[in-house]
Amino acid sequence: MNLALFDLDNTLLSGDSDFEWAQFLIEQGVLDREIQEARNQRFYQQYQEGTLDIGEFLDFQLQPLAAHPRERLDAWHRDFMARRILPMIGAPARQLVGRHLERGDLTAIVTATNAFVTGPIAREFAIPHLIATIPAQEQGQFTGDVRGHPSFQGGKITRVEAWLESLGLCWGSFTDSWFYSDSHNDLPLLERVSHPVAVDPDPTLRRRAEKENWQILSLR
Questions:
Q1: How far apart are CA 138 and CA 68, in angstroms?
Q2: Which residues are known to be catalytic?
Q3: Which residues lie closer than 8 Å to 213 by C-beta, 6 or more apart?
């Protein structure tokens, strides 16, 4: 059995679903443009620089979910998928995922973006498993808090290993394992698999991939 793990933002997607969700809410008038757009840009820059405070960011990301009924959030997300996400899914990304699925590999998206935003995207790719940051809920409504460990940087390994354990598996269960990512933030998990793949990588990841002779590919 083989294992195929995929980062989502700027990897399978030609953009960042986290960033785009906040921008979408700003366009809908849900978030204040003057205040929130600058914060969204700042968090995105910090992520790219590797200096993101994940707690501060998740507070920004999850508070809007707690402020609105789930039915309204779901309606917004359907519009968000059509207008923002589907245009960011290219044929090469679908084909890459399809090859792993056809081979019968155990596949999952592993992303720091929260599961509300990314769940429908994973289903669009027909990827059966999603390891994402989990927004806490009470009686079907989001609270604005995080449940469990965020799926970010080294936390991705923690979450992947817990998921594998829940399936009665471990790293040694697989003949080969892949992780596809664009970001140096994902170096801990890239170093853990037998086949790390840099997808349209940022400069830091590209340098590391070239040094280690990792595969580099483009899905654009």
A1: 13
A2: 7, 9
A3: none
